[in-house]
Design a protein that fits this description.
Order of helices and strands: HHHHHHHEHEEHEEHHEE
Number of strands: 7
Radius of gyration: 34 Å
CATH superfamily of the largest domain: Histidine kinase-like ATPase, C-terminal domain
Number of domains: 2
Low-confidence stretches: none
CATH topology of the largest domain: Heat Shock Protein 90
Length: about 350
């Protein structure tokens, strides 16, 4: 049982217990002590807890406290009167069963007094419940708002990435239409696969690394039209990392950055290496290309890397890392490190 549930049931037992004890004391003073009186108030204690909890569940399920104030007040008042009437009916019935003709409820005055008291007790319970849960509801609303803002921000960041990716692909296909129509058709099919993948994956924001590798393979096939023999690719993907979720299209962004700033400026092209592994319960993805990081290059790549880092921060908080550094042998390495979630 969660701590807040424990507190709730303790308060339920304490509140209705105190009210029942006070009622028993007053009733014993007026009509004298008898076992049936204690049994009646014990039953009152139990079904009052049950009825008020049913009311709480309905309030939460129907979200009464999220309604406009007047509508919420009307429903709460109606519920208090209804529960008061049910409690009164049970009290009168139990007392008549135990005491018969000697019951105080053979007259109407005690019935009306009991109905007023039980309705007032239920209304008091509702007021205290609303008051003591107000802070929790405020926290829940703030959490939902933060999640909605994060979702909107994440979608906006993804939208910034997709048009850039699409324009590059279309430019690659355009040069093939006249020269090699059959290959152009194949490239259009690959582009359609990429677009379909994006439409399916946007709502999830993460996908298995194996799926991302397949999409990157389609992207590299499109870019090979432009680079021809200047582009060489190697893959080193561990079997234990293929089904691990990673941010959608982020690997493609790193590959696109490597092509643009590493392969494209070199007349002879170069080798693009993609590696992925699990290391101490973290997923390490690296994209390596020829070149060196200089100040001018670092500035020109800031937008894509900034968006990628922002996406990682939204998805993983401070547990994610994306860095661009100079590697060995005149190479540049983009390294993403995220927690392994499965």
């Amino acid at each position: 049982m969660r701590p807040k549930d424990t507190i709730y049931w303790v308060c339920q037992a304490f509140g209705w217990g105190v009210f029942s004890a006070i009622g028993l004391w007053f009733a014993a003073r007026q009509s004298g002590w008898r076992p049936s009186l204690a049994a009646g108030f014990l039953l009152y204690f139990l079904y009052s807890i049950a009825l008020s909890d049913l009311l709480r569940r309905r309030m939460e399920r129907k979200q009464w406290l999220s309604l406009p104030r007047r509508a919420a007040a009307f429903r709460i008042a109606a519920a208090a009167v209804t529960i008061g009437a049910v409690q009164t009916l049970l009290i009168v019935s139990v007392d008549l069963v135990f005491d018969g003709r000697t019951s105080v409820f053979t007259r109407l005055d005690p019935v009306f007094a009991t109905a007023f008291g039980t309705t007032l007790a239920t209304a008091t319970w509702i007021l205290y419940y609303v008051r003591f849960t107000a802070r929790q509801r405020q926290r829940e609303r703030e959490t939902l708002l933060q999640l909605a803002l994060r979702e909107a921000e994440l979608q906006a960041l993804e939208a910034q990435i997709h048009p850039h990716f699409l324009f590059n692909c279309l430019n690659s296909i355009r040069g093939l239409v006249a020269e090699n129509p059959a290959r152009a058709q194949d490239m259009i099919t690959r582009l359609a696969n990429l677009l379909r993948y994006n439409l399916q994956r946007d709502r999830y924001h993460t996908a298995p690394l194996a799926s991302e590798i397949e999409i990157v393979a389609d992207y590299l096939a499109l870019e090979s039209v432009r680079f021809e023999d200047r582009l060489q690719v190697t893959l080193d993907i561990g079997d234990d990392v293929k089904q691990v979720p990673v941010p959608t299209m982020l690997l493609q962004t790193l590959v696109e950055n490597a092509l643009k700033h590493g392969i494209a400026p070199l007349p002879e092209g170069g080798l693009l290496a993609i590696r992925a592994r699990v290391e101490r319960n973290r997923v390490i993805v690296e994209v390596e290309n020829p070149g060196r990081i200089v100040e001018r290059m670092a500035v020109s790549t800031q937008v894509g890397l900034h968006n990628s880092r922002h996406r990682l921060r939204i998805l993983y908080g401070d547990e994610a890392l994306l860095e661009l550094r100079n590697g060995d042998g005149h190479r540049v390495v983009a390294r993403m490190s995220i927690p392994r979630t499965i």
